[in-house]
Amino acid sequence: MDLQESFEALDSRAPDTYAQAVEAYCDGILRLHWNERLINKIFGRALQSHAAGRLVVQHYQWQLRGAPRPTLALLQRRMPGGGRTLATFFAVLRLAGMVAVDIDPGDRRVRYLVPTPRLLDGLRTWVRHHLHCAEALGALPPGHAQRLDSDTDYFTAFLAGADHILDRLAETRGRFGGWDWFDQRDGGGRIAMLLLREHCRVHRPGEEGSTPFPLRASELAQRLGFSHSHVRNLVNEATAQGHLTQDAPRGLVALTPRFQAELQIWLQHLLGWFAETAAMAQHHLQARSQAPTHNKAAGVHNP
């Protein structure tokens, strides 16, 4: 994976600033996953991504606030779903070099999960991309995305407070219609990103109805590491659910107006949570800088 992908202005055909920003957001997410079969397999569903996020948040809350260090048992208590599924997932992350294990010197039965630089570098790119989009859409003042690279304390404070994003995602699960439907399926979130990107490129403001665009299912399946039949089946099911319309003879699809509205509401909420977390991180650092010197080190644990 190229972990230096940035939120660059595209040679975009999108007709307005909002559509251009959303197109760039979707395009960046897709570029981070093109030809990354392992990444797509590991993080194919939301549960896996959120579990990895909980691990990172807990790790930095331990460092900054003295919270309990993350263990498998702790994360299993705080995450929905089967404990065995999470155990398998974190074992895969260890094999992929994204998670390491520290053994408690006082009790060798206790094993702490530690995010590695590989996982943190990928997460930095992911967060940066969301903050760039929030800035482009006016939800966040400029400079936060760039600060992730130049200010280690800011990046750490953001991650320690990112349970705000994960909690909101958990609380609102099932409220975003078509987005939730796609996101619950293997690779569904990536496919939804491609559909939204193509929609932004062809749809014109004030245009009634939905503008169709070509869907190259074979290329999409190859790039994301899924079978062609999986992509086709997902598109056909989405059509039956009323999220898409298809012109099968011409190989065209279109987002229904309802699905367009659901995607817009979901993205506005998501970027809003990222913006709120960025503001909280900045506030935390300002408060710490103004605190008496003897308090600054209180409760801080080093790995």
How would you characterize this protein structure?
This is MarR family transcriptional regulator. This protein has helices spanning 17-31, 37-42, 46-65, 72-78, 83-95, 117-136, 144-150, 152-160, 163-171, 178-183, 188-202, 217-224, 228-240, 257-290, 293-296, and strands at 99-103, 111-115, 213-214, 244-247, 252-255. With 303 residues, it is mainly alpha-helical. Mean pLDDT is 85; it is low at 1-9. The longest helix is centred in the C-terminal third of the chain and has 34 residues, at 257-290. The two termini are 27 Å apart.
Question: What layout of secondary structure does this protein have?
Answer:
Elements: H1 17-31, H2 37-42, H3 46-65, H4 72-78, H5 83-95, E1 99-103, E2 111-115, H6 117-136, H7 144-150, H8 152-160, H9 163-171, H10 178-183, H11 188-202, E3 213-214, H12 217-224, H13 228-240, E4 244-247, E5 252-255, H14 257-290, H15 293-296
Antiparallel strand pairs: 1-2, 3-5, 4-5
End-to-end gap: 27 Å
Query: What summary fits the major beta sheet?
Result: 3 strands, antiparallel
- Which structural category do the helix and sheet elements fall into? mainly alpha
- Total strands: the figure is 5
Question: What is the multimeric organization of the chains shown?
Answer: single chain
What percent of residues are in strands? 5-15%
Poorly predicted residue ranges: 1-9
Order of helices and strands: HHHHHEEHHHHHHEHHEEHH
Radius of gyration equals 20 Å
Total number of helices: 15
**Shape assignment:** globular
What is the average per-residue confidence, as pLDDT, rounded to a whole number?
A: 85
**Helix coverage percent:** 55-70%
Describe the strand arrangement of the main beta sheet, using strand numbers: 3-5-4
